[in-house]
Amino acid sequence: MSEHENKLKAAGNKAAGAAKEAWGEATHNERLEAEGKGQQLKGKAQKALGDVEGKLGDKS
């Protein structure tokens, strides 16, 4: 996946995760809240991967 694809997917995962977490908190659904937190972490990891790909691309 390219740098931009990873960063785009990261943004989507972070936004969806935040929404799930908020909905889980509002409805007292601990499973959904945890899922949201996990999805946000996945988004952060994807962004980090995109950042690394960008740095490597700059050096090529």
TrEMBL record:
Matching Pfam families: CsbD (PF05532)
Bias kind Low complexity: ranges: 9-26, 37-49
Coiled-coil residue spans: none
Domain of life: Bacteria
Residue ranges of every copy of the CsbD-like domain listed in the record: 6-55
Positions of the UniProt region annotated as Disordered: 1-60
Record's compositionally biased regions (Basic and acidic residues): 27-36, 50-60
InterPro entries reported for this sequence: CsbD, YjbJ_sf
Protein family: Belongs to the UPF0337 (CsbD) family.
The protein's name: CsbD-like protein
Organism this protein belongs to: Hasllibacter halocynthiae
